[in-house]
Amino acid sequence: MENDYIEINLPEGTNLTRRPMTDLQRRRLLCDDLEYCVTQDKDLLVTIIDEFVYHLSDKEVKEYEVLVGSIIED
């Protein structure tokens, strides 16, 4: 698959500057990478959504049902 990314093997938790990344930085980078990846592989999006919904509390499920309902009705 052709893309704009190059593969670089770095120790976990580091970036190109070799300074340790904070947990928040690692998670933000993962979000960015996943956003790109799901545009390339729709099955990955299904897997991520399934895992996300599985971990929701009952209260969170109800909140997302309301959110989705309001968007679908528009």
Task: Describe the fold and architecture.
The longest helix has 18 residues, at 23-40. The chain is extended. The chain has three helices and no strands. The model has no long low-confidence stretch (mean pLDDT 85). With 74 residues, the chain is mainly α. Helix content is 64%, strand content 0%.
SSE blueprint:
Blueprint lengths: L22 H18 L1 H13 L3 H16 L1
Summarize the structure.
With 74 residues, the chain is mainly α.
Gross geometry = extended
Largest sheet: none
Helical/strand content category:
mainly alpha
Q: What number is the mean pLDDT?
A: 85
Number of helices: 3
Q: How far is the N terminus from the C terminus?
A: 36 Å
What share of residues is helical? Answer: 55-70%
The radius of gyration over CA amounts to 17 Å
H/E element sequence = HHH
- DSSP strand content: under 5%
Low-confidence stretches: none
Q: Could you tell me the number of beta strands?
A: 0
